[in-house]
Amino acid sequence: MKITQRFNRVVKPLKPVDCSTKDPKPSILKIKPNLKPKSKTKPRTMKQKALTQPGLHSEESKPTFLLEKAPILGLEFYQIDALDLAPRLLGKYLRRDDVVLQITEVEAYRSNDSACHGRVGITPRTAPIFGAGGHAYVYLCYGLHTMLNVVADKEGIGSAVLIRSCAPVTGLETIKQRRGLDTEKPILLTGPGKVGQALGISKEWSSHALFAPGGLELLDGPEMKVEEMVVGPRVGIDYALPEDVEALWRFAVAGSPWISAPKNTLRPPSSSTKLLDITI
Predict the structure, then answer these.
(1) What region, left, alpha or beta, does residue 279 occupy, with left being phi > 0 and alpha being psi -120 to 50 degrees?
(2) How many helices (DSSP H) and strands (DSSP E) are in the chain?
(3) CA distances from 127 to 117, 124, 197 (A)
(4) Residue 35 neighbours by CB under 8 Å, 6+ apart
(5) Which of 148, 135, 231, 134 is nearest to 192 (CA)?
(6) What are phi and psi of 61, to 5 degrees?
(7) What span, in angstroms and rounded, lies between the C-alpha atoms of 50 and 20?
(8) How far apart are CA 195 and CA 102, in angstroms?
(9) How far is CA 180 from CA 61, 122, 166, in A?
(10) Rounded to an integer, what distance in angstroms lies between the CA atom of residue 266 and that of residue 255?
């Protein structure tokens, strides 16, 4: 079991977009006893719900003015190993139409990984994963659930990052309608099939360029530090080799309620087990 410096490199991503907001202190009109106040107008105070996740927005914080300034991530952002790309995607934004989601949980799938679809080679289904990094790879799970993956690395490698969970930022009503679920609880977006449904995408979105304006875009967002992450083994890959089943290639935002089950397999990277038990 050994650790490489690969993760140390990826936690220093592109210059982050400042997505933090602070409530201004309310101005309060003080009235002296037995004296008529100078103004009959009561001061207005602004109340805002506190963010429930470090570095992540809730629907109530309405950060649309910041999102307008958030650039679409360029092609070069994706031209790295899937295991490097996965933690860098945490905190980034997916945008389609009026819906904006912030990525809270991902899984890496590498070309030499027995759990990766690329292991079978190029087929009509897997061809998009062998494209250049920065494109979408979308497939149906059990013929029902639309799974969105972000292709990583250079063309021909065959690796990607699965988007497992997101938090809603804008377009909540559209998300509810697409999901057929009238709730604002995390169940709305905690699971890869739910993310695909909320974005309203299908298999036809495979090979779509996420770095191109229009359609489905991936925007820059706040960087996640190591201490803001939890890691664990990937979900639903019992068919893979034991070393791949046990690999800690699932990344999530620590303390976020917008994480799929199981959560008890996730732990801080500072635990007794090293963050990335990888042999490159």
Answers:
(1) beta
(2) 6, 8
(3) 10, 6, 22
(4) none
(5) 148
(6) -80, -15
(7) 11
(8) 10
(9) 24, 35, 17
(10) 11
> What dihedral angle (degrees, nearest 10) is formed by the CA atoms of 220, 221, 224, 230?
-90
Q: What is the pTM of this model?
A: 0.76
Mean pLDDT by 10 residues, the chain (280 residues): 41 39 40 42 34 44 62 96 97 96 98 92 92 96 88 96 98 97 97 97 96 96 93 96 96 97 92 40
Sign of CA dihedral 161, 164, 124, 75: negative
Question: With the CA atoms of 60, 170, 257 and 17 taken in that order, what torsion angle do they form, in degrees rounded to the nearest 10?
Answer: -90
Instruction: Tell me phi and psi for residue 170, to 5 degrees.
Output: -135, 165
Q: Of how many residues is the chain composed?
A: 280
What phi and psi, each to the nearest 5 degrees, are found at residue 60?
A: -70, -25
Q: Report which secondary-structure segment, H or E, holds 161.
A: strand 159-170
Tokens of 64: 């649309």
Cα separation, 261 vs 241, whole angstroms: 22
